[in-house]
Design a protein that fits this description.
Elements lengths: L2 H12 L7 E5 L8 E10 L2 E10 H21 L6 H20 L8 H9 L1 H5 L4 H15 L3 E11 L1 E5 L4 H6 L5 H15 L3 E2 L2 E7 L7 E7 L2 E7 L1 E7 L2 E5 L3 E13 L2
Antiparallel strand pairs: 1-2, 2-3, 4-8, 4-12, 5-7, 6-11, 7-10, 8-9, 10-12, 11-12
Helix pairs in contact: 1-2, 2-3, 3-4
Protein backbone atom coordinates (compact mmCIF):
# COMPACT_ATOMS: atom_id res chain seq x y z
CA UNK A 1 0.00 0.00 0.00
CA UNK A 2 1.38 3.41 -0.95
CA UNK A 3 1.13 5.28 2.35
CA UNK A 4 1.69 8.67 0.69
CA UNK A 5 -1.12 8.05 -1.78
CA UNK A 6 -3.43 6.98 1.04
CA UNK A 7 -2.55 10.06 3.08
CA UNK A 8 -3.47 12.29 0.17
CA UNK A 9 -6.81 10.50 -0.18
CA UNK A 10 -7.51 10.85 3.52
CA UNK A 11 -6.45 14.48 3.57
CA UNK A 12 -8.50 15.27 0.48
CA UNK A 13 -11.60 13.94 2.20
CA UNK A 14 -10.94 14.89 5.80
CA UNK A 15 -9.36 18.11 5.04
CA UNK A 16 -12.33 19.39 3.70
CA UNK A 17 -10.75 20.48 0.50
CA UNK A 18 -11.65 17.84 -1.99
CA UNK A 19 -11.48 19.90 -5.08
CA UNK A 20 -10.35 17.78 -7.97
CA UNK A 21 -11.33 20.01 -10.91
CA UNK A 22 -14.63 18.84 -12.36
CA UNK A 23 -14.97 18.72 -16.13
CA UNK A 24 -12.90 20.49 -18.73
CA UNK A 25 -11.84 24.09 -18.72
CA UNK A 26 -14.37 26.35 -20.38
CA UNK A 27 -14.26 29.80 -21.98
CA UNK A 28 -17.30 31.62 -23.32
CA UNK A 29 -15.35 33.99 -25.55
CA UNK A 30 -11.90 33.84 -27.03
CA UNK A 31 -10.68 36.84 -25.05
CA UNK A 32 -12.19 35.70 -21.74
CA UNK A 33 -10.30 33.88 -19.01
CA UNK A 34 -10.72 30.12 -19.04
CA UNK A 35 -12.41 28.84 -15.91
CA UNK A 36 -12.87 25.58 -14.07
CA UNK A 37 -15.50 24.45 -11.58
CA UNK A 38 -13.97 23.66 -8.20
CA UNK A 39 -16.13 21.58 -5.79
CA UNK A 40 -15.26 21.63 -2.08
CA UNK A 41 -16.73 19.31 0.55
CA UNK A 42 -16.64 20.29 4.21
CA UNK A 43 -17.12 17.38 6.63
CA UNK A 44 -18.26 18.05 10.21
CA UNK A 45 -20.08 16.19 12.95
CA UNK A 46 -23.28 17.76 11.68
CA UNK A 47 -23.09 16.65 8.08
CA UNK A 48 -21.41 17.47 4.79
CA UNK A 49 -21.57 20.85 3.09
CA UNK A 50 -20.62 21.22 -0.57
CA UNK A 51 -19.54 24.46 -2.21
CA UNK A 52 -18.97 24.85 -5.97
CA UNK A 53 -17.34 27.82 -7.60
CA UNK A 54 -15.99 28.75 -11.03
CA UNK A 55 -12.35 29.87 -10.81
CA UNK A 56 -9.78 30.89 -13.41
CA UNK A 57 -7.71 27.89 -14.43
CA UNK A 58 -4.46 29.33 -13.06
CA UNK A 59 -6.10 29.94 -9.67
CA UNK A 60 -7.55 26.40 -9.60
CA UNK A 61 -4.14 24.94 -10.44
CA UNK A 62 -2.54 27.08 -7.74
CA UNK A 63 -5.03 25.73 -5.18
CA UNK A 64 -4.38 22.17 -6.30
CA UNK A 65 -0.64 22.65 -5.82
CA UNK A 66 -1.24 24.17 -2.39
CA UNK A 67 -3.44 21.20 -1.48
CA UNK A 68 -0.55 18.83 -2.15
CA UNK A 69 1.71 21.02 -0.01
CA UNK A 70 -0.93 21.03 2.75
CA UNK A 71 -1.07 17.23 2.53
CA UNK A 72 2.69 17.04 3.09
CA UNK A 73 2.41 19.54 5.94
CA UNK A 74 -0.24 17.37 7.60
CA UNK A 75 2.10 14.38 7.42
CA UNK A 76 4.72 16.41 9.27
CA UNK A 77 2.26 17.52 11.96
CA UNK A 78 1.25 13.91 12.61
CA UNK A 79 4.88 12.76 12.62
CA UNK A 80 6.08 12.40 16.23
CA UNK A 81 9.70 12.58 15.06
CA UNK A 82 9.31 15.91 13.22
CA UNK A 83 11.29 18.82 14.69
CA UNK A 84 9.75 21.97 16.17
CA UNK A 85 10.95 24.04 13.20
CA UNK A 86 9.41 21.57 10.73
CA UNK A 87 6.07 21.76 12.53
CA UNK A 88 6.14 25.58 12.58
CA UNK A 89 6.68 25.57 8.80
CA UNK A 90 3.90 23.00 8.38
CA UNK A 91 1.45 25.22 10.31
CA UNK A 92 2.41 28.15 8.07
CA UNK A 93 1.67 26.11 4.93
CA UNK A 94 -1.77 25.09 6.22
CA UNK A 95 -2.49 28.71 7.21
CA UNK A 96 -1.56 29.86 3.71
CA UNK A 97 -3.74 27.19 2.09
CA UNK A 98 -6.70 28.06 4.33
CA UNK A 99 -6.28 31.77 3.53
CA UNK A 100 -6.26 31.07 -0.21
CA UNK A 101 -9.41 28.94 0.10
CA UNK A 102 -11.13 31.70 2.08
CA UNK A 103 -10.06 34.35 -0.43
CA UNK A 104 -11.70 32.32 -3.20
CA UNK A 105 -14.91 31.95 -1.14
CA UNK A 106 -14.54 28.18 -0.88
CA UNK A 107 -14.97 27.91 2.88
CA UNK A 108 -18.54 29.11 3.21
CA UNK A 109 -19.13 30.91 6.49
CA UNK A 110 -16.19 29.22 8.23
CA UNK A 111 -13.29 31.41 9.32
CA UNK A 112 -9.66 30.48 8.58
CA UNK A 113 -9.18 29.59 12.25
CA UNK A 114 -12.28 27.39 12.28
CA UNK A 115 -11.08 25.54 9.19
CA UNK A 116 -7.64 24.96 10.69
CA UNK A 117 -9.24 23.75 13.93
CA UNK A 118 -11.43 21.41 11.88
CA UNK A 119 -8.41 20.08 9.99
CA UNK A 120 -6.47 19.50 13.21
CA UNK A 121 -9.37 17.85 14.99
CA UNK A 122 -9.83 20.68 17.50
CA UNK A 123 -13.29 21.41 16.15
CA UNK A 124 -14.48 18.01 17.26
CA UNK A 125 -12.81 18.30 20.64
CA UNK A 126 -14.51 21.65 21.22
CA UNK A 127 -17.81 19.93 20.56
CA UNK A 128 -16.99 17.25 23.13
CA UNK A 129 -20.17 17.98 25.04
CA UNK A 130 -22.43 17.74 22.02
CA UNK A 131 -24.75 14.76 21.66
CA UNK A 132 -22.78 13.59 18.62
CA UNK A 133 -19.47 13.70 20.48
CA UNK A 134 -20.90 11.91 23.50
CA UNK A 135 -22.22 9.18 21.22
CA UNK A 136 -18.83 8.79 19.52
CA UNK A 137 -17.03 8.59 22.87
CA UNK A 138 -19.48 5.99 24.19
CA UNK A 139 -19.11 3.87 21.05
CA UNK A 140 -15.32 4.18 21.16
CA UNK A 141 -15.14 3.03 24.81
CA UNK A 142 -17.47 0.09 24.18
CA UNK A 143 -15.45 -1.25 21.25
CA UNK A 144 -12.04 -0.52 22.79
CA UNK A 145 -12.97 -2.47 25.93
CA UNK A 146 -13.65 -5.45 23.67
CA UNK A 147 -10.31 -5.26 21.86
CA UNK A 148 -11.31 -3.29 18.76
CA UNK A 149 -9.34 -0.40 17.23
CA UNK A 150 -11.50 2.65 16.56
CA UNK A 151 -11.38 5.90 14.63
CA UNK A 152 -13.88 8.66 13.95
CA UNK A 153 -14.47 11.28 11.25
CA UNK A 154 -11.82 9.54 9.20
CA UNK A 155 -10.76 9.06 5.64
CA UNK A 156 -10.32 5.35 5.02
CA UNK A 157 -8.88 2.89 2.54
CA UNK A 158 -9.37 -0.87 2.60
CA UNK A 159 -7.89 -3.57 0.39
CA UNK A 160 -8.61 -7.27 0.19
CA UNK A 161 -11.59 -9.45 -0.63
CA UNK A 162 -14.35 -7.25 0.82
CA UNK A 163 -17.79 -8.48 1.84
CA UNK A 164 -19.71 -5.38 2.92
CA UNK A 165 -23.08 -6.03 4.54
CA UNK A 166 -25.49 -3.09 4.87
CA UNK A 167 -29.29 -2.96 5.22
CA UNK A 168 -29.57 -1.70 1.62
CA UNK A 169 -27.68 -4.62 0.05
CA UNK A 170 -28.69 -7.50 2.32
CA UNK A 171 -31.34 -8.91 -0.05
CA UNK A 172 -29.00 -8.74 -3.05
CA UNK A 173 -26.24 -10.38 -1.02
CA UNK A 174 -28.52 -13.27 -0.07
CA UNK A 175 -29.73 -13.65 -3.66
CA UNK A 176 -26.12 -13.79 -4.91
CA UNK A 177 -25.78 -17.12 -3.08
CA UNK A 178 -28.90 -18.49 -4.76
CA UNK A 179 -28.82 -21.98 -6.28
CA UNK A 180 -30.38 -20.43 -9.39
CA UNK A 181 -27.29 -19.41 -11.35
CA UNK A 182 -28.98 -16.63 -13.36
CA UNK A 183 -30.52 -14.97 -10.28
CA UNK A 184 -27.29 -15.33 -8.30
CA UNK A 185 -25.21 -13.87 -11.13
CA UNK A 186 -27.53 -10.89 -11.67
CA UNK A 187 -27.65 -10.17 -7.93
CA UNK A 188 -23.85 -10.31 -7.67
CA UNK A 189 -23.37 -8.01 -10.67
CA UNK A 190 -25.86 -5.51 -9.21
CA UNK A 191 -23.95 -5.56 -5.92
CA UNK A 192 -20.65 -4.85 -7.69
CA UNK A 193 -22.14 -2.04 -9.79
CA UNK A 194 -23.99 -0.34 -6.91
CA UNK A 195 -20.97 -0.60 -4.60
CA UNK A 196 -18.83 1.17 -7.20
CA UNK A 197 -21.18 4.18 -7.27
CA UNK A 198 -20.32 6.75 -4.55
CA UNK A 199 -23.05 6.58 -1.93
CA UNK A 200 -23.70 7.12 1.80
CA UNK A 201 -24.65 4.20 4.03
CA UNK A 202 -25.90 3.54 7.55
CA UNK A 203 -24.45 0.88 9.85
CA UNK A 204 -22.57 -1.90 8.11
CA UNK A 205 -20.48 -4.97 8.91
CA UNK A 206 -17.46 -5.70 6.73
CA UNK A 207 -15.45 -8.90 6.51
CA UNK A 208 -12.18 -8.49 4.62
CA UNK A 209 -10.05 -11.45 3.64
CA UNK A 210 -6.99 -12.21 1.58
CA UNK A 211 -7.42 -11.65 -2.18
CA UNK A 212 -4.48 -14.05 -2.64
CA UNK A 213 -2.81 -16.55 -0.24
CA UNK A 214 0.41 -14.51 -0.22
CA UNK A 215 -1.20 -11.06 0.17
CA UNK A 216 -2.60 -9.72 3.44
CA UNK A 217 -5.69 -7.53 3.55
CA UNK A 218 -5.72 -4.18 5.33
CA UNK A 219 -7.65 -1.14 6.54
CA UNK A 220 -6.00 2.27 6.83
CA UNK A 221 -7.68 5.27 8.51
CA UNK A 222 -6.74 8.82 9.41
CA UNK A 223 -9.11 10.85 11.54
CA UNK A 224 -10.05 12.21 14.93
CA UNK A 225 -8.12 9.50 16.80
CA UNK A 226 -5.02 9.79 14.61
CA UNK A 227 -3.74 7.21 12.15
CA UNK A 228 -5.07 3.70 12.79
CA UNK A 229 -4.45 0.71 10.55
CA UNK A 230 -4.64 -3.08 10.55
CA UNK A 231 -3.17 -5.75 8.30
CA UNK A 232 -3.96 -9.43 8.65
CA UNK A 233 -5.20 -12.57 6.89
CA UNK A 234 -8.74 -11.55 7.81
CA UNK A 235 -10.25 -8.41 9.36
CA UNK A 236 -13.75 -7.65 10.59
CA UNK A 237 -15.09 -4.11 10.93
CA UNK A 238 -18.20 -2.20 11.93
CA UNK A 239 -18.74 1.01 9.97
CA UNK A 240 -21.26 3.66 10.92
CA UNK A 241 -22.19 6.04 8.10
CA UNK A 242 -19.52 5.08 5.53
CA UNK A 243 -19.68 7.24 2.38
CA UNK A 244 -17.63 6.14 -0.58
CA UNK A 245 -17.09 3.30 -3.02
CA UNK A 246 -16.17 -0.38 -3.00
CA UNK A 247 -14.58 -1.28 -6.33
CA UNK A 248 -14.97 -4.90 -7.52
CA UNK A 249 -15.07 -5.97 -3.85
CA UNK A 250 -11.28 -5.49 -3.73
CA UNK A 251 -10.70 -1.82 -2.84
CA UNK A 252 -12.78 0.54 -0.69
CA UNK A 253 -12.19 4.24 -0.32
CA UNK A 254 -14.25 6.89 1.43
CA UNK A 255 -15.11 8.79 4.57
CA UNK A 256 -16.48 7.25 7.76
CA UNK A 257 -17.89 9.02 10.87
CA UNK A 258 -16.98 5.97 13.00
CA UNK A 259 -15.22 2.67 12.42
CA UNK A 260 -14.28 -0.22 14.72
CA UNK A 261 -11.92 -2.88 13.35
CA UNK A 262 -10.34 -6.07 14.63
CA UNK A 263 -8.12 -8.86 13.39
CA UNK A 264 -9.88 -12.20 12.98
CA UNK A 265 -7.65 -14.81 14.64
Amino acid sequence: MNKTAFTFIAITILLLASFIPAGNAIATKENETKTMEVPVQIYTLHGVKEIRKELPIDEAMKLQKMAYEAKEAMEILFNKNASFIEKVKAHAIIDSFSYEMKKNELLGNLSIKEVKDLIMGKYFMKNRNSMEMQRLNAMAKFFQQNGWQVNAMCGMFASGLIIDIHPWNLILLLLSFSDLIIIGTIAFLLLVILDAIPHPTTIGYWLIGRPHPEVECGIYTMGLFGIKSLENREISAWLFGFSGVVVFNLIAIGFCPFIAMKRVE
